[in-house]
Amino acid sequence: MSGARALFPRHREPAYGPGPGCRTLREEYAMAITFTRLTDTFAAAVYGVDIAAGVSEADFAAIVRLFNDYSVLVFHQQNITDEQQVAFSRGFGPLEGTVLTNAGSGTEIALISNVDPETNEIIPPTDRRMIFNSGNEMWHSDSSFKRIPAMASLLSGREVPPADGNTEFASMRAAYAELPAEKKRHLEGLVAIHDFAYSRGLIDPTLIGEAQQHETPPVPQAVVRSNPVNGHKNFFAGAHASYIRGLPVEEGRALLQELTAFATQPHYVYVHQWQPKDLVMWDNRCCLHRGCVWDKAKYRRVMHRTTVAGDGPTAHA
Fold first, then answer.
1. What is the pLDDT averaged over residues 107-134?
2. Distance CA 72, CA 19 (A)
3. Residue 16 confidence (pLDDT) above 90
4. Domain boundaries, the chain
5. Which class for 182: exposed (0-12), middle (13-18), buried (19 or more C-beta within 10 A)?
6. Residue 44: in which H helix or E strand, if any?
7. Is residue 285 within 8 Å of 171, Cβ to Cβ?
8. Given CA atoms 14, 33, 171, 91 in this order, what sign does their dihedral have?
9. The CATH fold of domain 23-308
10. Beta carbons of 305 and 89 less than 8 angstroms apart
11. Strand ranges for 204-301 from DSSP E
12. 146 alpha-carbon distance from chain centroid
């Protein structure tokens, strides 16, 4: 994108455990766990947490503060069950149910996988389920197509490929902070219509059936949002954002695409290279994310996701 500045210097993740630049939460948050910043603007790896063994109330409060400050948190070596993942996730708030089109429908665990849960075999890349899941490779915020958009997602890497298959995260908060003042004023008060059928229709218009369209009709979302804890603002865009209320469809759509492109410049992005048993948590209110391709016909990739519901609608109907 023209005008993009040079990449920020990166802090490489240690293989496991805190690196030499690691701050302790005792120093910064009065807790005895540690964290390492993963970019200059957002994302942190958190150490000293064993979710399977249980997290103390004090440590959980510190994690919540880190979440609001850094938006993306990485927890390595979390060998957890679905029940333990659900219990940890519920600490942040009520969980969403999984949409009809996911294999985990009717539960609180969404299955993001190329492995058939019935046969335990790799699903062919040409299978309709894999074509549907390719929508996860577009920049998006989970459940922005719901009237009450998600607050957070927690993704557990149960099986990860030996190469590729990364997940990329983009900070709409960091991007918003660097918008010109005039652009910020222009965005204030705008409402976008988010639509699951629109985003999946970019792949294949037949992917969303009538039942799914009934479950997730188009919904309004504020274009500018703010964190209720620290007040930091961000714009809110991504693949599910179809158009802007009150603007010609193509004009509004172009603006939303411009915002997504701005937020996904490399210096606003953290690339997570999965290690087995990683758990990654992110703030859907201010982050976009996308899955990256891998050799889907050869390597298994099994991810279990829980999604924490938001507090309420972001815009009037």
1. 95
2. 18
3. no
4. 23-308
5. exposed
6. strand 44-47
7. no
8. positive
9. Double-stranded beta-helix (3.60.130)
10. no
11. 219-222, 224-226, 233-235, 241-244, 269-272, 279-283, 287-291
12. 15
Token pair of 40 as six digits = 């200059």
Between CA 297 and CA 142 the distance in angstroms is 26
Query: HEC profile for 18-43?
Result: CCCCCEEHHHHCCCCCEEEECCCCCC
Instruction: Give the residue ranges of DSSP H helices in the chain.
Output: 25-28, 57-70, 82-90, 128-133, 172-177, 181-187, 196-201, 210-215, 249-263
State how far the Cα of 20 lies from the Cα of 77, in Å rounded to an integer. Answer: 19
pTM: 0.89
Q: Is 115 in contact with 122 (CB distance < 8 Å)?
A: yes
**82 phi/psi in degrees, rounded to 5:** -60, -40
pLDDT of residue 66: 97
Query: 311 is written with which tokens?
Result: 């507090």
Strand 44-47 relative to strand 72-75: parallel, antiparallel, unpaired?
Answer: parallel
Mean of per-residue pLDDT scores for the chain: 90
> Which tokens in the block code for residue 262?
């701005």
- Collapse the DSSP code of 213 into the 3-class scheme (helix H, G, I; strand E, B; otherwise coil) and give the result: helix
User: Is the pLDDT assigned to residue 125 strictly greater than 80?
Assistant: yes
44: nearest Cα among 78, 69, 74: 74
Judge whether 144 and 291 are in contact, CB under 8 Å: no
- Are 117 and 129 in contact by the 8 Å Cβ rule? The answer is no
Q: Please count the CA atoms within 13 angstroms of the CA of 180 that sit on its side-chain side.
A: 4
**Is residue 83 predicted with pLDDT exceeding 70?**
yes
pLDDT of residue 213: 86
Residue 17 confidence (pLDDT):
39
For the chain, the residue count is: 317
DSSP 8-class letter at 57: H
Specify the range with the lowest mean pLDDT, choosing from 76-85, 96-105, 227-236. 96-105
Lowest mean pLDDT among 68-82, 96-110, 165-179: 96-110
- Contact partners, residue 166, CB within 8 Å, separation at least 6: 271, 272, 273, 274, 291, 292
The pLDDT of residue 20 is: 41
